[in-house]
Amino acid sequence: MNKRNFNEWLSKFKTSISDYTYYVDFEKIYKNVDKVKLELNILNSLIGSKNIEKEFQNILIKYPETLECIPLLLAVRSREIFVKDEVNEYLFKFNKMVYSMQDYIRFMQETGLFDLLQNHIINNLYDYVLGIEVGLDSHARKDRGGDLMENLVESYIIKAGYKKDISYFKEMYLKDIEEKWNLDLSEMSGNNVSTKRFDFVIKNENQVYVIETNFYATQGSKLNETARSYKMLAQESKKVNGITFIWFTDGIGWNSARKNLEETFNELETLYNIDDLEHGVLENL
């Protein structure tokens, strides 16, 4: 039975594991902006224009590819933008013109882009889009946080002496685990073994360890569902010989869902945090 004290264990959760590259991925941003650098420089000619509608029309006729950058000026990644006014609904496409030139001119007017360009509110579209990309990239921090936790756990897996693609594996589906080690894992997936994927799998002489990792720096409703689903997975894994489920999680976001996490803690003896990693839990499997 698990003899650990939950409150003591939870008190060791980290505020953050963010490194210097967590906040903004500038390398990715520069690549994204450079893809449209030529088109942005062409549209720069509209800055301060005295006859912006006519000049915009001339640009689209001569350089139709410039249309594709318009959504990005509104911080939209999609090549389609839906608009509803008092009378009509529009689904503007920007990989090709699906409405009249006047409709696209109106789009530029009503969204405020003509005003932005015409009245010198900005001086250079490349710099402007660079700023937009920084803002959009902030949404990817959640994914990077997950990557940071995966990378951290992997570093301890390697430190414990496991070799990639020999004794430990990344991102394996249950179906692949079944086939590789001749196991029946139907109890762990409601007989739909192909859909569940684990972050890591460790194989030693007599056991397969399936591992999930995550880190939550902020609270949210998802945490309760995560704790419940992993509790169920812990219960299911106990029905399978030769399999042990390990969950590495951390982050002060769990303080808002401590009750559900505690239920999983009581069910899953192999629920660990970063402090457990630091104290060599993987070296004692």
Structure characteristics:
285 residues; alpha/beta; Trna Endonuclease, Chain: A, domain 1; five-stranded mixed beta sheet; two-stranded antiparallel ribbon; 13 helices; 7 strands; 43% helix; 14% strand; elongated
What this model shows, in words?
- This protein has 285 residues and is α/β, with parallel strands linked by helices.
- The chain has two domains: 6-20 and 140-284, Trna Endonuclease, Chain: A, domain 1; 26-139, no CATH class.
- Helices cover 43% and strands 14% of the residues.
- The protein contains 13 helices and seven strands.
- It has helices at residues 6-10, 26-34, 37-43, 52-62, 70-73, 101-110, 113-118, 125-137, 141-159, 174-181, 222-237, 258-267, 274-278; strands at residues 80-84, 89-93, 168-173, 197-203, 208-215, 243-250, 271-272.
- The strands form two sheets. It has a five-stranded mixed beta sheet. The protein has a two-stranded antiparallel sheet with strand order 1-2.
- A hairpin with a 4-residue loop joins strand 4 and strand 5.
- Helix 11 packs parallel to helix 12.
- It is elongated and about 75 Å long.
- The chain starts with 5 loop residues before the first helix and ends in a 7-residue tail after the last helix.
What is the topology?
Elements: H1 6-10, H2 26-34, H3 37-43, H4 52-62, H5 70-73, E1 80-84, E2 89-93, H6 101-110, H7 113-118, H8 125-137, H9 141-159, E3 168-173, H10 174-181, E4 197-203, E5 208-215, H11 222-237, E6 243-250, H12 258-267, E7 271-272, H13 274-278
Parallel strand pairs: 5-6, 6-7
Antiparallel strand pairs: 1-2, 3-4, 4-5
Helix pairs in contact: 2-8, 11-12
